[in-house]
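Run log, item B.
One chain of 395 residues. Sequence copied directly from the ordering sheet:
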Amino acid sequence: MSIAKEVKFKMYTRNCPVCESNKSEVLFSNPDYRYIDAWGINYKAPLRYLICENCTHIYKNPNIDPLQMRNMYSRLIIEPINDKENESQRLKMHYESFVELTEDFFRELKTPISMIEIGCGNAELLNKIYNKFSTKISSIKGIEPSLELGRQLKERVNFEFENIFFDQLDLSKKYDFIILDNVFEHFDFPHDELSRLRKLVSDTGYLYISIPDISFAIRGFVDMFAGHPSNYVIENFKLLMDKAGFYVEKYDYKYKWLNCLIRLKKASDKTEEFNFHKIKGDLVREMQSKLKSNNELLFKLKNIIKREVELLKSTNGKMLIFGAGDHTQELMTHIDFKNTVIGLIDNNAFYHGKTRLNLKVYSLSQLKELHFDKILISSQSFHQDIKANILTLEF
């Protein structure tokens, strides 16, 4: 099955974004990787991850041209606004991670604080946080660069919201608590972003930063590093914070995320020393093992899917693929679905009725109107929610 017309990203090379070292080792490479935005436009860029010899930071190099990536970010919808009463499992995990790490902080607050979330997505996490700690919060704001999410959020949220990128935010106002939930790993230039955060946070304020822990790399058709420009472990994350004048006061690994509570560094805070040579050796072995394991998994998955597709072809059967994003786009580069797939299913209402990957996108409610034999769930992050949704339906 052919993929829609592609736009080629421009690429640039860089040194380690944490320590600026130019000494590194290649961990992973895919010269034919693709992305897809909310409007169904496809982008192609080589995907190569290096590990820094100096601080073990795993980063994308070459990296996508910042202006092109900015344009694609504005055209993304990572998580759609949920019209249902039932929360997604992913939202529950993000919320529980936040509460577990910050509950003591909020309990000990004497006066209400101002709060902002950088990259609030569909704002469901920010709403839940405000509902729980409303008596502790004097003002609340979210910013999000996605144009479509911004259009929807302006009509729905009951707090201050701006449809902008972080570098467009007015830094003259300070906040007591700043949330970056699965956002920081997307920054190409973390030192620049931390400089902005220093101007934005009050003298006694805190940051909550939650990032995927690379030790728990995801598996499946989409790359294990999830396309992130930066992938941290706690040691080089602490090093980065220290260089920027911050101090990681508390952290945990709930739900395989590295969740950190961070404040401005005090004179009494000592810089930690790490044996990055040993850390790098251990991490390289771990990543190589995970990549090998993922390749074995992909081999099995491709064989299973190919058998199912061939069986459908032999009986003139038809299939729907649940998922209209990067995972399905990558899946289609490995499997020939020609004359088998009749369409895509997705929970994102923005996609419904549109064509993505040369296929029409339907909603769950339209399943009863379609004639098909199988549904293939194509997702790494949301497969549990998708399966649960499908099982609630009656055919």
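Observations after the first pass:
- Residues 6-68 form one domain.
- The CA atoms of residues 59 and 314 lie 45 Å apart.
Flagged for discussion on Thursday.
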